[in-house]
Amino acid sequence: MDSLLGGEGEESGEAEVREVRDEVIEVELIRGPVYFKNDSIIAARGNLDFSATKPIRSSGGIMGLLEKVLKAKMLGMKRYFVRVDGSGVLYAGDGGKVRVLEVPEGEHLTVNQDRLLFTTAPADVAAQLDASVLSTGLIDIGFEGPCKIVVTSECDPVTVKVDGDPVYVDPECLIAWSGDLTFSATWKGSTLDFLLGREHGEEFLLEAHGYGEVLVAPYDERIRRLERMIRRAGVRSNQGVGGSEGYEEEGYEEYEEPSEEGGLLDDIFDLDTDDLFDFDIDFD
User: Fold this and answer.
1) Residue in 278, 281, 280 with CA at minimum distance from that of residue 77
2) Which among 11, 19, 229, 259 counts the fewest CB atoms within 10 Å?
3) What CA–CA distance (Å, rounded) separates 183 from 167?
4) CA 174, CA 158: separation in Å to the nearest integer?
5) Residue 146 and residue 213 in contact, taking contact as beta carbons nearer than 8 Å
6) Structural contact between residues 62 and 56, judged by C-beta atoms closer than 8 angstroms
7) Among the listed residues 35, 51, 186, 9, the one whose alpha carbon sits nearest the alpha carbon of residue 27
8) Does residue 185 surpass a pLDDT of 70?
9) Cis before residue 104, ω within 30 degrees of 0?
10) Position 25 pLDDT exceeds 70
11) Is the peptide bond before 258 cis (omega within 30 degrees of 0)?
């Protein structure tokens, strides 16, 4: 029963990872499992097995299954990843430029899960559960070395050092960070601007404290992705870039603001039945 309802928990694999070009990685799988973002594998060869999972480390067994479901809810991890076992070579991409990050043994790396393309190890726990940080929309997951992580960005990301003095980061640009860092949400707007209804886009920032490094994208990529979707929709509808019909089909619905109803406890106990059956069965 323990094997059926959770096995030994998510495991780590071993792989060689290199950048084929700016947007594509080649993964030589030595020993599985490894994990890819859903619908990101573009080609593969070898003796490989694929399954859907949420790469969250757990203790295995029935209690491990409940632990995994709880962590997935707290992390807001609704998307499944592709678990790959066996041996072979895979190619993957997600439309953005890739960056391969190696995490040495004993070190910790935290990644905004929306940026995660590939990992050889399952995630540990939520790195930030502070309400002020979560209110910015930042959802992040932690990885313990040794492991390899691949993140994506529309353009080449920038590494910024934090050496004791506070560093302010746009939460939409934060990709990953390492070291002994803590974050808090801070208001950088002007009271006069607020009263006059003027916005400059940098009212809410994350304030990083401690010592370490942060990897940030060069701009808010949601806007660039939305612009690209509008252009594609305009071409399809023959209405040009500003075609309203195309915008409704691909732009607006894709970026619809999430509902603010309910809280963390509601999310935790609002269980999806898929979560209860998120395990791998070996029929051999």
Assistant:
1) 278
2) 259
3) 10
4) 10
5) no
6) no
7) 35
8) yes
9) no
10) yes
11) no
Higher pLDDT, 271 or 7: 271
Joined together, the tokens standing for residue 208 give: 């990083």
**pLDDT at res. 147:** 94
Q: Integer distance in angstroms from the first to the last C-alpha of the chain?
A: 16
Q: Which two tokens stand for residue 49?
A: 């097995």
Longest dimension (CA), the chain: 68
Residue 138, class by beta-carbon neighbours within 10 Å (0-12 exposed, 13-18 middle, 19+ buried)?
Answer: buried
Q: What is the pLDDT of residue 264?
A: 46
Q: What does the radius of gyration of the chain's CA atoms come to, in whole angstroms?
A: 20
Separation CA 240–CA 235 (nearest Å): 6
User: Distances in Å between the alpha carbon of 14 and those of 87, 107, 213, 214?
Assistant: 10, 17, 25, 26
Residue 98 makes CB contacts below 8 A (sequence gap 6+) with: 19, 22, 23, 24, 25, 117, 150, 151, 152
Opening angle at CA 35, ends 27 and 30, nearest 5: 45
Q: Among 43, 41, 37, 40, which residue's Cα sits nearest to residue 55?
A: 37
Which amino acid type is present at position 258? P
How many other C-beta atoms are found inside a 10 Å radius of the C-beta of residue 121? 24
Q: What is the pTM of this model?
A: 0.71
Tokens of 156: 């080449």
Where would I find the H helices in 186-252?
191-196, 221-237, 244-246
